[in-house]
Amino acid sequence: MDYLNQSLETIHQALKDKKVTVTELVKEAINKAKKLQETCNAFVTIDEDNALNQAKELDNKEVTDNLLFGIPMAIKDNYSTKDVLSTGSSNILNNYVPIFESQATSLLKDANAISIGKTVLDELAMGGSGLTGHTGVVKNPLDTNRLIGGSSAGSCAAVVAGVIPFALGSDTGDSVRKPASLGGIVGFKPTWGRISRYGLYPFAPSLDTVAFFTRNVKDSAYIFDVLNGYDNKDMTCFNLEKEIVYDSINGTIKGKKIAVLKEIYETISNPEIKKEFDEFFENVKKQGVQVDLISIDKKLYDTIYSTYMILSCSEATSNNANLDGINFGNYVEANGVDASVIATRSKGFSELIKRRFVIGSYILSKENQEKLFIKAKKLRRLIVEDVNRILDSYDAIVLPASGNVAPLFKQGNDVDRLSDEYLLLENHMAIGNFGGFPSITIPCIKYQGLPIGINITGKAFKDKDVLNLAYGLESMIGGKK
Amino acid sequence: MEKISIEKLKELALNLKFDMDEKQYQTLQDEFDIMLRQMEAINKTVDTTNVEPMSFPFDVCFSYLRDDEIVEESPRDEILRNANKVVEGQIQIHKVVE
Fold it and tell me: What's the structural domain count of chain A?
């Protein structure tokens, strides 16, 4: 039996019943990872020896009640993992082996989950395609002619392919929730500040969130339980009591109220896809859920993409100034320190990253701060206040996570970046990062045999309610085991 | 907003301590053109007068000071193992003082 594409509970029970050993699970995960590497390039590092050693140790212990005991996992390569190469999928860090463990990976390892490897991302988590990692393009396991999306491309591909039942990603704009949609799995971004970011490479810290992929919503609830809680090593981590939600998620959705934002929803250009989503919402209503198509100020929401680009590029420019190759990273010798740093950064960053840094630097320059940077921060407040106003009356905002299935590679950049469909439908999930809202994507419809997800976003710190609603909708749709 | 020049882009890139080739600067100029047009549209359509800028998702104060406790640091050799050149326990770089 293939246990790796089952729920955490099913795998755990099999371990308890001694139907499978941890070593067998890990060996199977590594074999699958190697096969996936040939077709989809999901991994930067497959950590075979460490994983098998840990598995052997666990096989000498009694299986505990902890569902992560002996479960293989994968980690996005922008988490610091002690003594394991952690490249950020960038040439500038292609030889960097950290001396400390990130808080998130530390908690997962303390729970006896076993990392089988580090996964490819869009370089330094900037980008949403899976095309820009320094070790090459990540392909979609459902159709290798298509993108899986990003930036958490490899982690998503590995869960989609059933290599591991869950994987760690990170989400700054929609970097977990968008690929989850294109791969037909669950991607959850909890409330900002609920999980420590210590050891997660900073891209835009006011937006960055530890996030993860699972095969179903209950598994996401379990990972959330393991990861959330105060950590004094992250100054933006809330000093709140650890929350345990797994046992209280029952999927009751009758009587709930959800808002569908009309001006975003109606930008779906493919009538067949729109019809599928219309039918989904009709089915939701039949479950006793109030579904309201509500109007928003389109002019304000049109600014989501620009606001995101301005804030994220500005923060990224500043946060990555430390990558000079001197203390760590891939140093390139030239004639003098200044020339060496220029050579290091010129060779170390790809073109896309450089463009984002220049945009950030332009925005932060004195003459542009007020009209661009401060303006974007004001727009962020207006958007967040408006979303909070909606969430005062509704349990969640529910919208398609994307307007179409995973794009073909040959489509390239054939996207109108000034169209409503692009600016609103393809970028609305950044709202979740602006306001730190808990936000989850679950598989919803299929078009031409490929999945498109639905996204559910709720009030900050209401992670349990968002997970519960998602669980209810997943049960209605008929999700994975 | 007026179109940003290639020279200005080169200046910004060099301030950030990297360089690009001519084609890449051209792509960047095109990207700037779209972004600045979007921003121009925003400035015209959404009034942000008297709106307080939002830097973080929530208006909260974080404590930036930890208790002054002695903690175990990583050994020097471990810290230095990622550096390019290490001489007598120190990272070696080019001479910076003429």
Answer: 1
Give A215-239 pLDDT, tens digit per residue: 999 999 999 999 999 998 998 999 8
pLDDT beyond 60 at A437: yes
Residues A374, B53: C-beta atoms closer than 8 Å: yes
Q: Which residues pair with A43 in a beta bridge?
A: A119
CA B83 to chain centroid, in Å, comes to 22
In angstroms, the CA A219 to CA A225 distance is 10
> Is the pLDDT confidence value at B64 over 70?
no
Residue B65, domain member (yes or no): no
A115 is catalytic: no
Q: Which of A48-57, A62-71, B66-75 bottoms out in mean pLDDT, i.e. has the lowest?
A: B66-75
Residues comprising chain A, all counted = 481
State yes or no: pLDDT of A366 exceeds 70. yes
Residue range of the domain that includes A365: 1-481
pLDDT of residue B42: 76
Alpha carbon of B19: minimum distance to chain A alpha carbons (Å) = 6
**Domains contained in chain B, number:** 1
- Say if B71 falls within a structural domain: no
Q: Is the predicted pLDDT of residue B32 greater than 90, yes or no?
A: no
Which one of A151, A312, A314, A350 is the catalytic residue?
A: A151
The answer to whether residue A175 is catalytic is yes
Residues of chain B numbered 17-46 and touching chain A (CB < 8 Å): 17-20, 24, 27-28, 31-32, 34-35, 37-39, 41-43, 45-46
H or E element at residue A260: strand A257-261
Considering only the beta carbons, identify the residue of A238, A299, A380 that sits closest to B54. Answer: A380
Longest CA–CA span in chain B (Å) reads 61
Preceding amide of A206 cis, omega within 30: no
Provide the domain limits for residue B11. 6-45
Residue B76 in any domain: the answer is no
